[in-house]
Design brief:
CATH superfamily of the largest domain: MetI-like
Radius of gyration: 24 Å
Number of strands: 0
Structural class: mainly alpha
Low-confidence stretches: 283-287
Mean pLDDT: 82
CATH architecture of the largest domain: Orthogonal Bundle
């Protein structure tokens, strides 16, 4: 067999193997989503069946979604999640953009130490601050409030945002600010009018990270909130539909609420996927 034929066979085998691995990866990724969706649109008695025929159902129960919104306080949970996630994202973006820019461009005493402290805070597991923050919230009376949960989510989302935006600002050429300063702009106006518009991909990446983190957060919301009217989606779904002790779990409603809660995040990723990839890649630049 000639060398040319050997290379052709290797090329064919390589492409075939890559496609097989891609198919297996897609199956492992998409099958759980398909399983959750099917479990949300079949009658509850079919879900506990040992037969696998329910994976290709003949009848669909879309009224499960109507039941979730009409007969449960799911809209209240979603409203709380939206308010908390958007507020956390907005405040984090404002503070993190100024803090990240100061670490990337300005020179002042203690700048490197401050940057290392932020990195250490980001590395430490967030569960460490669970009890201290709870005691502070109780002492000042902001437990069982959206405001308290917003501050909590900011405490572990902001270090990552600051560090990522710092890397993005470092990747931008300093000549941009220098040209603006020569034209008579101040440092603040140069940052707001020149640097910030160019940092849109990094801001989008930080915003998506913060929003998803706040939207899906469970442990802090479960610990700090015990009023049903203040619960977010993860806590509300678990407290209302999952009863481990009584073994009376309503898995159909759990699946319906899971699909419904995933839709806003999926739509968000569809619109900003391009900026997200650019922002995450730029945030990896080292000084």
């Amino acid at each position: 067999m000639s060398i040319k034929n050997r290379w052709k066979i290797r090329n064919i085998l390589g492409k075939t193997g890559s496609r097989v691995l891609l198919f297996i990866s897609l199956f492992l990724l998409l099958f759980p989503i398909y399983w959750i969706f099917i479990a949300s649109v079949i009658p509850p008695n079919k879900l506990i069946s040992t037969e696998l025929s329910w994976l290709i159902p003949r009848q669909f129960a879309f009224d499960n979604y109507a039941h979730l919104f009409i007969k449960t306080p799911y809209t209240t949970y979603m409203t709380n999640s939206i308010i908390i996630a958007i507020s956390t994202t907005g405040v984090c973006l404002v503070v993190s953009s100024f803090a990240g820019y100061s670490l990337a461009r300005l020179r002042y005493k203690g700048r490197k130490l401050f940057g290392r402290l932020i990195l250490c805070t980001y590395i430490l597991p967030s569960v460490i601050i669970l009890i201290p923050i709870f005691r502070i919230m109780v002492s000042i009376g902001i437990n069982n409030t959206r405001f308290g949960l917003i501050l909590t989510h900011m405490s572990f989302a902001m270090p990552f945002c600051i560090w990522m935006l710092r890397g993005y600002f470092i990747s931008l050429p300093p000549s941009l600010e220098e040209a603006a300063l020569i034209d008579g702009a101040t440092i603040t106006s140069a940052f707001l009018k020149v640097i910030l518009p160019l940092a849109l991909p990094g801001l989008v990446a930080a915003a998506v990270y913060t929003f998803v983190l706040s939207w899906n957060e469970f442990l802090f919301a479960f610990t700090y909130i015990d009023k049903d009217s203040m619960r977010t989606i993860p806590v509300g779904v678990v407290s209302r539909f999952v009863h481990v002790v009584m073994n009376a779990n309503d898995w159909t409603m759990v699946m319906v609420s899971s699909i419904t809660a995933s839709i806003p995040v999926y739509i968000l990723f569809c619109f900003i996927q391009k900026h997200l990839v650019q922002g995450l890649a730029a945030g990896a630049v080292k000084e």
